[in-house]
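Thread: "does anyone have the structure for this chain?"

Original post by V.I.:
We have the sequence but no experimental structure in hand. Need at least a predicted one for the grant figures.
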Amino acid sequence: MSPAADWKDLSERLGYVFQDREILARALTHKSHPAEKASPDPAPKSTDSDNEQLEFLGDSILGFLVSEALYGSFPDYPEGKLSKLKSWLVSASHLHSVAARIGLGEALLLGRGEEMSGGRAKRAILSNALEALLAAIYLDGGMDPARRFVREFVLPDTTGDTETAFPPALTDYKSALQEQALAKNLPQPKYVTVGERGPEHAKTFTVEVRIGEALITRAEGASKKDAGQRAAQMMLSQF
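Reply from O.Q.:
Generated one for you, tokens below.
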């Protein structure tokens, strides 16, 4: 099946039908594809022959829509934490995973060289194409469908526990707990390692966090740091 034949399937997965098929084709065209069709003495490259300019536009649209969503979803988060979450959501690694999930690679138009070298799975190609696709949706249908695309595919599911919707490395539960204790005029959290088990190369640690005399939680982890973060997260859930 040719990439062009996959465009209908891609539209169905996205839940969006393009009115302008040309803008979709451009968004899915990697620069290697028109380059191989150039004549021996090519004219200056056309700016609308591949998705690089759409990628530029999509990058800005993505940044705005992610910022808008985070601002609305986490009104109590400090600017530094919002910036950290945004950086992850617009990163090439995250966009690559989103592109892979929607099967974007199969729909791309690539030059033979990129095709043979596994271009349909390359992180840079897929993440850039996703930004170009977002720009194409915006140009074809406006901001509302672009916003729906970002909310459905780029943002994590925050209908449940919003803290666990993001990778643990992005969430510093200890700092969050300290801020909550300060805001509620409570004593500062104190952490104590109360147990460890298992062989030296695979120990499991138990850390207790205590706020005053009444609030106590314990959690296990593969390291004291991990166990402390988990205990802090459990304490936050009590608030």
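V.I.: this helps a lot. Confidence is low (pLDDT under 50) at residues 39-46.
O.Q.: and The chain has two domains: 3-162, 172-238.
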